[in-house]
Specification:
With 433 residues, the protein is of the alpha/beta class. It is built from 17 helices and ten strands.
């Protein structure tokens, strides 16, 4: 009888509002066959249906639906040749935020044994119960319902619910602007999630499993370049609104461009480093500081084919999600495109790292012999594995100056709250002048 195979459970992204586990991009056939794993892709409740927080609802229904899927895996995966004692959860965008939340959740303990976090915007915090109720009030008002009248909300059509979600998404949080990055998230300050995942890991209150985590080189290009041009005055104003008394420090680190009046690319660098690249380094450091094992990566690959659809500004850039066609490696079959020889090698290596990690908690150890070894992260060496066709290279101290700066900001919740409350009246006064 064959030994049961490790299991990889994929949690899809989409800002907790959209997406599905069954899309062609996430087809797990190649990853399963080449990595000798069982791949499970799941769906979960989205938007208000999954994360509406009121006085009666804790706003974690979608998160609980994910856990039900993990419980199903524990009970049933042996029937599909999988090992319930060797489960890895992995996801990108909101899926990676979900993975981090399960790592932090006491209720998810024992349901998985390793975790892969792909492009989680860590500083864009999960909603609190109070913020969730503010969003719920706007949502209910758009439906012409009382916020606690669930029966009224259930009587509305899908189109009405979708419209109300968009209305609620327009909410602005002046003390925590990044809280508007994702409105429909799991809720912290609840038994499900007592605190923000970063805080849980930093204070060693998490489910301590091996973690692989990282981001792509130009995460924020997708979000910033799709908007209007940002002139130099607007850039300064945006930094002031985001970073208050630290805005000058940010501008010194990310200065105005000399060859263009459009500041979108430099602003994209700010958001990439703050929300993604440097935040993942901080999370990796927190994992090893609590005697855990972490493997940190940076994906720096551009598509050789036109895979960005309407987001043509991502052509030639390593945009958010660029690793996915290589990880699942079904793009040639699904999109009928031809990868370059270098891309094929990168796709093979990516799948090997991910599946080896599912086998052993180490991307180097498993059924696949990798072309380049990937050292574990340490605070001294700060090793980061850069994946770029045709392979990977070890890069210590990547963007150290920038990441050391971001380490001083916004990771300690109490300190951040005190700073915002102290400086926000000053900012309002400056804007009124």
């Amino acid at each position: 009888m064959n030994e049961p195979l490790p299991v990889m459970v994929w949690i899809h992204g989409g800002k907790f509002e959209s997406g599905a586990g069954g899309t062609d991009l996430y087809h797990g056939s190649v990853l399963a066959a080449e990595g000798q794993v069982v791949v499970v892709t799941i769906n979960y409740r989205l938007g208000a249906l999954g994360f509406l927080a009121t006085a009666k609802l804790d706003g974690n229904m979608g998160f609980q639906a994910q856990r039900l899927a993990l419980q199903w895996v524990q009970k049933n995966i042996a029937g599909f040749g999988g090992n319930p004692g060797r489960v890895t959860i992995f996801g990108e965008n909101a899926g990676s935020t979900s993975v981090a939340a399960h790592v932090a959740s006491p209720a998810s303990k024992g349901l998985f044994h390793a975790a892969i976090v792909q492009s989680d915007p860590w500083p864009a915090r999960l909603k609190t119960r109070a913020r969730g109720q503010d969003t719920a009030y706007r949502f209910a008002k758009a439906l012409a319902c009382d916020v606690n009248d669930v029966a009224c909300m259930r009587s509305k059509s899908v189109d009405e619910v979708y419209h109300a979600q968009n209305v609620a998404n327009g909410q602005f949080f002046p003390l925590h602007i990044f809280d508007g990055f994702m409105h429909w998230t799991p809720t912290v300050g609840t038994p499900e999630l007592p605190e923000q995942p970063m805080q849980t890991i930093m204070h060693n209150r998490h489910n301590n499993v091996p973690m692989m985590l990282g981001s792509v080189q130009e995460e924020a290009v997708e979000f910033i370049m799709g908007g209007k041009a940002i002139n130099k005055v607007s850039y300064a104003g945006i930094l002031l609104g985001l970073y208050h008394t630290r805005a000058k420090d940010v501008m010194e680190l990310y200065p105005l461009p000399k060859d263009s009046d459009d500041c979108r690319m430099i602003f994209a660098s700010v958001i990439t480093d703050h929300l993604f690249a440097c935040a993942h380094r901080r999370a990796a450091r927190a994992v090893v500081d609590t005697a855990g094992h972490a493997y940190l990566y940076r994906y720096n690959q551009t598509l050789s084919f036109d895979g960005w659809g309407k987001m043509q500004y991502c052509n030639g850039h390593a945009c958010h999600g660029v690793e996915l066609p290589y990880l699942f490696n079904t793009v040639e079959e699904v999109m009928q495109v031809q990868l370059t020889p270098g891309e094929k090698k990168l796709a093979l290596l990516t799948g090997q790292y991910w599946s080896n990690f599912a086998h052993s908690g180490n991307p180097n150890d498993g059924p696949s012999s990798v072309a380049q070894q990937w050292p574990g992260y340490s605070a001294d060496g700060e090793q980061e594995q850069v994946l770029q066709a045709p392979g990977a290279r070890q890069t210590p101290h990547l963007d150290k100056k920038q990441c050391d700066f971001w380490d001083t900001m916004f990771y300690d919740e109490a300190e951040a709250q005190q700073r915002f409350e102290r400086v926000w009246p000053q900012v309002l006064s400056m804007l009124a002048e």
